[in-house]
Design a protein that fits this description.
With about 160 residues, the protein is mainly alpha-helical. The chain is built from eight helices and no strands. The protein has one domain.
């Protein structure tokens, strides 16, 4: 398990009382912060609205959205507009791989509950969905982003070596 996954999971399900408990999007970005060139405070702020499928609406998984944001930060050093194509390609691949692993990308379908209703939100907490389901989504999002960034670094190195 990579240090980014360990950091993300330690924030998502902290065992140390001194560790800040974060939502899925925040945890993914905090885990990847060093890798994508942002500080933890920025990561926590950027990921804040994504829990429960973006603001508890049950839409796209917050961990997955945070992964896409991480890919955007990671490709930010290149000149516009060429970096957009890289970000689009990597984001499509992130969504494809995540969907292959988990069967969907929508929070309500991944967890089997609609968190946008008070009853659904209550059920999420009662059934401990955060632990039973979402931990795997956080882990997957970080792992896939790391893999995609590794591929990108390999592509860059191959291009430089061929010059």
């Amino acid at each position: 398990m990579s240090s980014a996954v360990i950091k993300a999971l330690s924030h998502f399900e902290p065992h140390d009382p001194g560790t800040l408990k974060l939502n899925c999007g925040q945890a993914v970005l905090a885990g990847l912060a060093d890798r994508i060139g942002i500080d933890e405070k920025t990561a926590i702020g950027a990921g804040r609205p994504f829990a429960g499928g973006i603001g508890h609406q049950g839409n796209v998984c917050g961990a997955l959205i945070a992964g896409a944001i991480a890919l955007g930060f990671a490709t930010g050093a290149r000149a516009e507009p060429s970096n957009r194509q890289t970000a689009y390609k990597r984001t499509r691949e992130l969504f494809r791989l995540f969907s292959e692993r988990h069967g969907n990308v929508e929070c309500r379908l991944l967890i089997g509950i609609d968190p946008s209703t008070p009853e659904g939100e209550h059920e999420v907490h009662t059934r401990n969905i955060h632990h039973t389901h979402c931990t795997a989504f956080v882990r997957s999002a970080v792992e896939i982003v790391e893999d995609l960034l590794q591929v990108e670094i390999g592509d860059i190195r191959r291009k430089e070596a061929s010059r």
